[in-house]
Structure formats: C-alpha cells, structure tokens
Amino acid sequence: MGWNAMGQIVLGWLVWGSALLGVGLLLRRLWTPRGLRPAGLLVTFWTGLCGMIFLLQIWHLLWPVGLTATIVLLALGGLGLVLGRRELAMMLGEEALRRPVVLVAALAAGMWLANRGLGPNCCYDSGVYHIQYVEWAKAYPIIPGLGNLHCRLGHSNAILLVAAAMDHFPAPGRASHFMYPLLVLSLWLAMIGAAGRLIRRGRAGDAGAVFYLLFAFVLLEWTLRESFFSSFHTDLAGMILLLVATGVLLQFLRGLHESSPGQVRADLVTMAVFAGAMIAIKISMGVAAVALGATAFVAAWVALGDPAGRAAMGGPACRPVRSLLATTVWMALAGLAFVAPYVARNATQTGYPLYPSGAFALNVDWKMPDARRDWQYRQIANWSRAEVQGAVLPPVPENWFPGWLERFLARKLLLVLPLVLTAGAVVLTLAVGRRGEQRLPRRCWLAVAPLAASLAIWFVMAPDPRYGGMALLWALAAVTVSLAAARSLSQAPAWAVRLAAAAYVAAAFFPIIVLSPLDKAEMENRPVLAAVVDEILMPPGEDGGFHRPPSFPSTSYTTPSGLTVTIPVLRKEKWVRVDVGGGMFFWGTEHEKETELYYVPIPSTPYPSPHLALRKAGDLRSGFRFVPLPPGADEQHP
Predict the structure, then answer these.
(1) Those residues with Cβ within 8 angstroms of residue 174's Cβ, 6 or more apart along the chain or in another chain
(2) Which residues pair with 604 in a beta bridge?
(3) Quick check: helix, strand or coil at residue 482?
(4) What is the tens place of the pLDDT at every residue in 589-634?
(5) What pLDDT digit, counting tens, does each position of 335-387 carry?
(6) Coil, strand or helix at 448
(7) Could you tell me if 229 and 119 are in contact, meaning their C-beta atoms sit under 8 angstroms apart?
(8) By the 8 A CB rule, do 628 and 583 touch?
(9) What's the whole-model pTM score?
(10) How far lies 619's CA from each of 191, 382, 613, 615, 616, in Å?
C-alpha cells in the first residue's frame, strides 16, 4: 500500500490544510464584521488558497518562491488559526462530518485519496511546462521574456506558484502528490457531509446539501485520472473553485433579503476574491468568474428596490445604499488585488498584459514575436475544436462540429449526464409549476444565468471541457437540480429522499467498482476482485512508495549567442521550422508530440530557436529575447 508515502501525503494535508484554513480565517477578518456566522470550512479553505495566490503573485515579482516564502505562508496560516480559533471551533462544531458514520466515510475517503496520490506526475502538460514553471519559480523571481524560451511558460497560472511553495515542505519535491489531492479532498468532504445531511434529515428542500451531492460523479473522475490527480495541473483548481463559488452565489441569493449589511458585504467580497483568483489560476475561467461576481453584485443592488431587502440591509433610509456603495469599492479592490499582479506577470513574461491575447502589447525588448504569440493562441483554439495540432498548425475543418459533438457525447458520465440532470430539473420544475411549494426565493434561479452565458461563450471561444466547460456543466446541473428539488420535492417522504441520495452516490460508484472491473476481468481472464482492486487502488511505486514521473531522453542545444538549453530527443517525430516574422523562426515537432521534458535541468524548451538569447549574457535572471542571427550563422537544426 505504500504506507510511508501515504503518511507523507497525509502530513502534507495536515500542514497545508491547516495553513489554508488559517490564511482564510485571517483574510476574512479584513472584510467580515465581528459577530457574523462563520462562512464554513469549505469556503474558508478556498479563501485561504486565494489568499496564498494573492501573496505569491506579488512575492514572485520580487523574489523566488523559495523556502522563505513557504515559511511566511505557514506562519500566516498559524497566526490565522490562533486569531480565528473561535470561528474555527464554531465551524467544526457545525459540520456534519462530526457525526460518527459520516466521519468514518470521510476518513475512508481520505485514505483512498492518499493512496491515489501515490501516482505519477504524468500529465502531458506537466511534462511540457508545469514542472518547468515550478522549478523556475523556486529558483528565480519572475523572468522577463520567459515566454520566448517556451511560449507556454508565458501563461501566468498562479496555482503553480502555490505548488512551488508547497514543494519545499514537509515532503520536498513531492508537492504534486499531495497538493491536488488536498484540493479534491475538500470537495469530497463537502459531498460526504451533504450526503450525510440528506440521509439523516431526509429533506429534499435542503438545497445546499443537494448542490454538493451532485458532484459525486465528477469527483470520482478527477480522483481516478492519474494525469489530473497527482500532477501540477492548472485546470482542476480553477474548476473546483468555480463549483465552490457557484455554491456561495446560490447561498447568497437564497438569504439575500434576510442578510444584514455586514453579511452582504462579506458574501460579495468573497465572490470578488474568488472571481479574481479564478482569473489568476486560469484565464479560461475569466468569463465565468466575472459573470458569477456580477450576478451577485446586481442581485444585491436590485434587492434595494424591495422593501424587505432594504429593511434587511439597513432600513428605508440611505444607509443601505451607502453600505452597498462601500461594498462595491471593497469588491473592486478585491478583484484588482488579483488581476493587477496577474496582468503585471503576463507583461513581464511575454510583453503582452493579456497573453495569449495581443491586446495592449508593450514596446519592450523581451516582447514575444507577435506571430509566435498568435501561434500559441491558435494552437489552443484548434485543439479545443478539432484536436488538431502541429508545429505548422493545420487549419480547423469548417465542419469541425460533428467531430467535436462525437467526442463530447462519448464522455457520457462527465459531460452528457449533467446536461440530462439539468434538463430533467427544468422539466420537473415546469411540470409542477405553481403547485410546487416555494421554499426558496425565485431570485435563486438567477444563478443559472451566469453559468448558461459562460457556457455559450466557452463554446464560441475554446470548447474543450477542461477549459471550464466540464465544471460549468456540473455547476449548472447542481444549481437546477437543487432548486427543482426544493420546489417540487420538498414534501417528499423522508425515506424517499434518503433512498434517492444513497442511490445517487451508489450509481456514481457502480461503473467503477462493477462495470469496468467486470470488463477487465473478462478480457484478462482473472478474478473480478483483483480487477476491482486494480481499478480503485494505486500500487506502491518504486520511489519510496511514490511513482516516478515519466522520463524521456533529452539533449542540449546551444544558440549562436552562447545560450545552452535542454531540448527533447525526438524518436518518431521530426523538427519543423516555424517562421515568426522578421526573418526569425523556431523549431517545433511536426505533430506537436514528443515535447515532454518533465524533470530536466532548466532552461529547457521543446521549441528551440537559434534566435533565442539572454538579455544580459550569462545571467538567466535578466530574461530572454529573440534576436536576429549574426551574419553567416546557419539555421542550427536541432
């Protein structure tokens, strides 16, 4: 089972889980008036992650994310736990996880996730650039023109800064094995607590519990996908944060007319913090982030037009307006605290503040050639529509939609199921109509608007499920099903609600512990139980219980300027020249394969170019730029 390695993973959870809660408690003290009910462990935990992202974005502009940064974050987390000990005790006392049966289920889930964390850091993108970015962040402050070395290193995915900080302690070099498992575990605990609440109380009108119960299917997918679970993946953190932010929005809309001015401010600023962090984590989450925050903001202002809303937020005079205006300033500052350093980091690494967009390009010597920036932009768009890629980008077929739809429908449990659940919830609500009991305010349905609008924009811009589409589909399903259950099934017998909750969770596990192992047992002619174990458990790896990441051959490449970089050794692919204007070019692989590098010495790149040079000879901290070849130099084919 790899007990020693699993113990290191659990230790990482305890250290960084406590730190995240502490930073969350500390941060929320800035905008939450005293006397308010605590936000809950899940929201506080993710507020802590947002706080670390805010701090590390600024830190990395000045210094490397070294051991000093790790100590500072852990110290802040400890301070937050001390100052917020009362709030923490209240949250722990209110959580459903303290009940024995639910606690046993939570502990079992934790042990399973720790076992799955033994897997290799084998995500393709981690091999191409995630690991290299973490190593750069640990060794140097932000590098001007880093995108010239490798266009994907120009993406300022702030979650990789958190990975760099966690990679120092308590298990140096092992952060990939416990960071994302910890983030996924937070949502697992919310789902288990929600299931326990529904089974114990038998109330379909508990919209919050139904909301988190719906994520059982997608949580199992994330846990069992090695490339997601134990890798430095930039998509997963943003998707989970989107789900949590949607839950906060739903709760805010539900209690808006009963909320005090302080509670309104706390919830709106929390939404702004989540929105800003989502943008800093992954720019593809930007539309959803802004839409969710804007919906909460507009709903609060609309509530001032209702007497009940004005009374709750401070009375009929101008006081609620002043309070909401002050909250608007808080929201703007909160969002700017994340977006401003994110834009500064983009500008420093590529010369484009909104990279990979070319808008507002800076006239600096480290600016990436515009054709190379556009190449990266089109590569993302091409892959998301037709999964076509290559150094010389093939055009996306005009009739790309049938192929895209076929791939979409093939992922029945992850992509089709949430659409079916959403459609069923809408049909149920329309069928019941006015006969249903209005347990929740109608404004709660406003939560559907930002999700639906974001899905439409996602489809137009980059319709790959991992660019936010998967999370948007599940968030939409969770909102519609929870609201439909509260309206249409609030009078359902308790036994029926308990049975439905248990059946849903069982249905999520059925394909994994029954169908897939049965197929494997039949194909491989071995016992079913052995196939089940292989399906759900990760065997110990060869590296002290951990599985090592893949390793591919690499070599060195020296440019005419004297810069030496590590590049992959191609096995079946071949190098292809890609022109970027001004007589300059770089080398890429014909089909954009065999580009993984994983743990190799930096500087490294799968896109070598003879035009690549340091801004100051011999100084990696000075950054990279593209320069014309000296007279008589050849193309330096790798």
Answers:
(1) 8, 9, 12, 167, 546
(2) 566
(3) helix
(4) 988 888 999 999 999 999 999 999 999 999 999 999 999 998 878 8
(5) 999 999 999 999 999 999 999 999 999 999 999 999 999 999 888 888 899 88
(6) helix
(7) yes
(8) yes
(9) 0.95
(10) 50, 36, 10, 8, 6
